[in-house]
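Team,

Forwarding the record for the chain on the shared tracking sheet. I've put the sequence and predicted structure together so nobody has to dig through attachments.
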Amino acid sequence: MSKSTDELFKNVISHAKEYGFVFPSSEIYDGLSAVYDYGQNGSELKNNIKTYWWKSMVQLHENIVGIDAAIFMHPKTWKASGHVDGFSDPMIDNKDSKKRYRADQLLEDKIARYEKDGKKEKADALQTNLDDALKADNLVALRDLIIEHEIVCPVSGTRNWTDVRQFNLMFSTQMGAIADDADQIYLRPETAQGIFVNFLNVQKTGRMKIPFGIAQIGKAFRNEVIARQFIMRMREFEQMEMQFFVRPGEEMKWYAYWKEARLKWHLAVGTPAEKYRYHDHTKLAHYANAAVDIEFEFPFGFKEVEGIHSRTDFDLSQHQELSGKKLQYFDSEINQNYIPYVIETSIGLDRMFLLTMINAYEEQDLSEGDKKDSRVVLKLHPCLAPVKAAILPLTKKDGLPEKAREIMNRLKLDHNIIYEEKDSIGKRYRRQDAIGTPFCITVDHQSLEDNTVTIRHRDSMLQERVAIDQLDKIIGELVSWKNLLAK
């Protein structure tokens, strides 16, 4: 069934809630803007994406190790990183609707509309002007472009704009027993700094030699004024980051390596290659000498999922200066002390989750002649699927539930398995299709006679008869992490 991109996105959001993947946070109190909870199937899928990233990053690389740094960090950390002084977005208010927008996003939306309408020259010219204004931090020029291109507020429909101002995105709080005497600290806006401040701890205790990497998965917090597009842009989100420490002068070699390696990781789960593209940064962050985004084509256009950045020695140099502690590495091969350069790979877990859902979601028309039929299926890679197999007794009597439970108890030692006996077998198949379960195992009367069951495959809907003794091997091979990691 063909759907417009808007419809597809709405249907995925609706499906995510209906089948226990994502819920609006605090929904009984009418929710909290741009904050979401992951449900029973969502948390499983999220954990499987994390496992895939961690195994491919840490398990497969003998020179990459993982840490788990605290969310709270000393306030000087964020001074050194540049977040206190420079972590802000250019915001503009509409005087009539009282709504606030990111100036650059308003202009990017306009560029997308020009491209959609076939006005390529206008789109290219505006993109060039936008890039120039952002590079120069020229807030007046940003406002002038919004006026010149007659951009209206989506709510009020007017062009009654304020000046563009910078808005800091860090959440602050107090640490201490008495608020008046407390020190102001911040919820971390990124996970990278926890890696940098632990650079020497990890290097010395792990006896790590350059080049080596430190990986981390963790929550970060940004006071996004424009939080939109479901879980694309949230105030509380999760990052999977790896900082790779290299010799100065070798950073571009490793930048090219990680750029290629990270795209391979994305493609291994079966996402069509044409859905991805690289987007080189025109305006580099203050710490970078090269930066590229891996973008995915969501229903609302190509958007960043992962960034690869060459961060130079900025972070370690800044922390060395502000802390007064030496963060140098002695390279015995060249008999030299230096502050390493860093290549960063940073992926938004929530965006990867959304990408996975969108890519897997399919509405299929199964009608034959006058017989109308359809199904919604999540074609998730078996490694990522929340539930690996469903055990379904054909009826609730004649010893079938007992036999099914026996199989369940064997398989659940290795895999996340679900048992279900309510409704017709067809309805149960459809429910499992909708959550992405790769295999349904039906226990029927023949199972009691010859110890065989029917395995139904989610994608093809084909069924085959197999021995119960073979189930461990069959399912184990089909959902093994080797299938992804070998790629």
